[in-house]
Amino acid sequence: RESSPLTLQVKNKAPAEVQITAEQLLREAKERELELLPPPPQQKITDVEELNDYKLRKRKTFEDNIRKNRTVISNWIKYAQWEESLKEIQRARSIYERALDVDYRNVTLWLKYAEMEMKNRQVNHARNIWDRAITTLPRVNQFWYKYTYMEEMLGNVAGSRQVFERWMEWQPEEQAWHSYINFELRYKEVDRARTIYERYILFTLLVIVHPDVKNWIKYARFEEKHSYFAHARKVYERAVEFFGEEHMDEHLYVAFAKFEENQKEFERVRVIYKYALDRIPKQEAQNLFKNYTIFEKKFGDRRGIEDIIVSKRRFQYEEEVKANPHNYDAWFDYLRLVESDTDAETVREVYERAIANVPPIQEKRHWKRYIYLWINYALYEELEAKASQRTRQVYQACIELIPHKKFTFAKIWLLYAQFEIRQKNLPLARRALGTSIGKCPKNKLFKGYIELELQLREFDRCRKLYEKFLEFAPENCTSWIKFAELETILGDIDRARAIYELAIGQPRLDMPEVLWKSYIDFEIEQEEYEKTRNLYRRLLQRTQHVKVWISFAQFELSAGREESLSRCRQIYEEANKAMRNCEEKEERVMLLESWRSFEEEFGTDTTKERIDKLMPEKIKKRRKLQAEDGSDAGWEEYYDYIFPEDTANQPNLKLLAMAKLWKKQQQESEAAETDPDKDIDESQS
């Protein structure tokens, strides 16, 4: 069957080598749009008929564009400007009116319309357009500015003022008021400008349109500029009264102070700065403080400058304690500052604020810094303010605040008692210390109370207090010693000896060696040598410490009798025998050295030779070390002592001597091998 000749047959149905995408087609079409077309040929109009024909074509083009999209205002403006270029003002005016019917809210359209009328000196038409514009869109400030400027350029000052008045009825923004004021000032109408300022401030007060400090400052500077200083001061005072203490602004006070400074009213300036600094939050008064510092440096004395520095430091401390009320170091610095330069009421106020920050945790370590706030407060009231009753109240309040069941501070009780004594009120002082011992007994409280009674020479009270003290802390050797010393001073030796006996009989003591030494020294002072020897024997039954033996020997030596040397030597003999089994060989060496010193001073040649034979030999040894985890940590060298009289060490001494002899022989044989000629010469000789 033959195919029809109209049918197209594709011979090669394979894809082309170069593929063209839809994106590429669109991109090429866009690029070709930008290609420059040849400009149209210039057309020269030679007669009226050609001109009318040209106008007809152009108008048809503009009308078509407007008909296609009526909302594009630029088409209307181009159309009107083209008609204006042909001096067809009436046609241009008609186009603008048609455009305003389409979009009367378009600001550019009104501006172009009015500018066309002004450009062609159609003043009344321009006024009409501006009136319509400000009536239709009264919140567009540009219309008002242009209208007033046109009237002023035409010399119609009254008309311009009338426009401004109409504008002010709409309560415009701040710049509009200032434009009106500047307009009046250009024509030297100061009173009118003041009236406008008053109206502006009135709006600020009643309508709260612009409650801003700078408006008041501008008004005051206006008065100052025209030399109405009393009016300017009154404006500043009204501004301060209007803003009050709730909305204080540092800029107002800085401007007020600078005004007074220009008037040479330095005291008024200082009062203004201080008033503002006392009431404005410190973080918002940096500029105010800076200007105050500059003023004091220029016109103030040394005292004024110091006040400024103190104020700055107070601000810093206020910030610190506000950030962390429990930062007691900051409170101390703050209080030290206010104590040096302020009145008592201010200092008390700061102290009350400081002590109100009680530590949140009832642990003594958190209270140690805090309690010094109370102490400093009480000392200030007593020493600086001279208020004894307030001092007593501070101490009592502090004592009530401390949780005595968990911990207490003996310093507070003692300071309170000492204060009452200075006030010659001994019963209250005793009552305070007695309460402290009853509520929370402490060693320091007992010692302070006893010291007080000793100063008052109330020895019976001291005895009772010592008894209570020792019932509370029987292991306190210092208390036993002090009690015994008190009885010794009072001449009651038997009571003192009985106290010592009770003390050494206690099952637990914190410093028994001090107690025994004090008891022994007591007996020596009483020249009771036999009792002293008995004490040493009783002590040696409890401990075999080398210092006890040496002290015993020196006591016998110092007894001053004929048999003292033999007794002393006998003590050394006993000590040496007792310490043969002592593990601490250094203590035995110490004993022998003390014995040798004794023999060198008091002994004979025989005794000296004997003690020399008892002295040990010092040798160096090595021992294996182990780490904490049990691993090998190497070797360590140390010194050991070998005593000749220890029979257990005799074989070791013999072995050591044989080792030394063998080492000597080895050294001699090595020397002979290194020098054979010397051996030959020796053999020949």
TrEMBL record:
CC per GO annotation: nuclear speck; post-mRNA release spliceosomal complex; precatalytic spliceosome; Prp19 complex; U2-type catalytic step 2 spliceosome
Residue ranges of coiled coil: 522-588
Record carries keyword NAD: no
Residues annotated as domain Pre-mRNA-splicing factor Syf1/CRNKL1-like C-terminal HAT-repeats: 74-360, 384-537
Keywords: Coiled coil, mRNA processing, mRNA splicing, Nucleus, Phosphoprotein, Repeat, Spliceosome
Biased composition (Acidic residues): 670-685
UniProt key word Coiled coil: yes
Pfam families the UniProt entry points to: HAT_Syf1_CNRKL1_C
Stretch list, region Disordered: 664-685
Membrane-spanning residues: none
GO process annotations (BP): spliceosomal complex assembly
Compartment annotation: Nucleus speckle
Family per similarity comment: Belongs to the crooked-neck family.
Function comment: Involved in pre-mRNA splicing process. As a component of the minor spliceosome, involved in the splicing of U12-type introns in pre-mRNAs.
Name used for this protein in its record: Crooked neck-like protein 1
Organism name: Thalassarche chlororhynchos (Atlantic yellow-nosed albatross)
Source taxonomy: Eukaryota, Metazoa, Chordata, Craniata, Vertebrata
